[in-house]
């Protein structure tokens, strides 16, 4: 389906013809390589990041296939090299080559697309890196589902089942990447502040326990305006969701079990079944008789929202039975569920910022999760406060394929674009009816169900 040639701008582990539409020459990728003259640039140059530890053995197999079809130097194993180092080196070389008048470098940079294969945490890691670079024209990103939930790929039409890794499947995916359309999505800035411990480890949370999306920004420095003396302040971002409570606890237990016994987690369906068992055990899908009320959100935190920039903080009254809160940016959560349905025309604009304040109280810790990566969060032991604050940051560019679940606010089919001022009052009433109906069925909604492949009869 693509043009082939016996050119020298790619190398393979076995005899094959690199796909010239996607291959990037060595001298673009490696500043120390000798520059070569090319007649034309590839029409869809890609840089591929793959988490070899994702999807059981699939990650390693996928790396092998991509390196057979492309230049080995444009396919990176994230367990060996971090994406920020790769992209920093690449874009520095772009600038050097363009300053020397290289038209191929200019065309490749303009048309570059990124591919990331891994779980949602891996995809968010790369999104955070691209966001941090603050490029004038950031490359759009396609996501290969290679995890358990795969919410990000599912939201943008790339599916949620882990892929096959043969050459024909990879060629087909590359063809989809070439035809994919660009779509901007919101990213959300998250600040987490907690007091530095007086004794014990210098960090309140082991660095390896924090999600990559917080690592992308690192703990703020002493010169940062957000820094407070005597406190550790972390900053990061999320693109799919931030959650806290029971759902994050289920995820934490799943990840902990996978770390202890990685050999048992090499199949996506098995992983989903294990996840569902943990959900039942914790009472995620039904009230648990063993669930202590001290874990309810109202016992742990105060939740405040700011509806408009520069507005006042308003406290939300959280029912005492609520065990999880999810701040959701995309219409996919926990493996393809859409608990919120289609956002109404008025409700979508009712929260500019969200703040969670945790005081000394009913528990020593809670659980939090950003884009599939959970951690165990210590709570105050004295008259102190742990604060998590979420605000809109900027946008990043994704690649979308059909069927795409996500909608841009500029999409004519989006409910936000179909509304006008004359419809505000009617929409407001409709939103209230829609929200009231949603309240009645939440937890038993049609979208809140186990994956079709999971037999619930064997989970209890």
Automatic annotation (TrEMBL):
Give me the Gene Ontology terms describing cellular component: membrane
Q: Which reaction does it catalyse?
A: a 1,2-diacyl-sn-glycerol + ATP = a 1,2-diacyl-sn-glycero-3-phosphate + ADP + H(+)
- Please tell me which top-level EC class this enzyme sits in: transferase
What Gene3D superfamilies does the annotation carry? Answer: Probable inorganic polyphosphate/atp-NAD kinase, domain 1 (3.40.50.10330)
Example GO biological process: phospholipase C-activating G protein-coupled receptor signaling pathway
Compositionally biased residues, Polar residues: 407-417
Compositional bias per record (Basic and acidic residues), positions renumbered to this chain: 419-429
Query: What highest taxon heads this organism's lineage?
Result: Eukaryota
Q: Where is this region: Disordered?
A: 403-442
Q: Please name the InterPro entries in this protein's record.
A: ATP-NAD_kinase_N, DGK, Diacylglycerol_kin_accessory, Diacylglycerol_kinase_cat_dom, NAD/diacylglycerol_kinase_sf
- EC numbers: 2.7.1.107
Q: Which Gene Ontology molecular-function terms are recorded?
A: ATP binding; ATP-dependent diacylglycerol kinase activity
- Please report the stretch or stretches of sequence annotated as the DAGKc domain: 41-194
Arranged from A to Z, the UniProt key words for this protein are:
ATP-binding, Kinase, Nucleotide-binding, Stress response, Transferase
Family, as annotated: Belongs to the eukaryotic diacylglycerol kinase family.
Stored PANTHER family:
DIACYLGLYCEROL KINASE (PTHR11255), DIACYLGLYCEROL KINASE 5 (PTHR11255:SF98)
This protein is called Diacylglycerol kinase
Q: Which organism is it from?
A: Oryza punctata
Q: What is the lineage of its organism?
A: Eukaryota, Viridiplantae, Streptophyta, Embryophyta, Tracheophyta
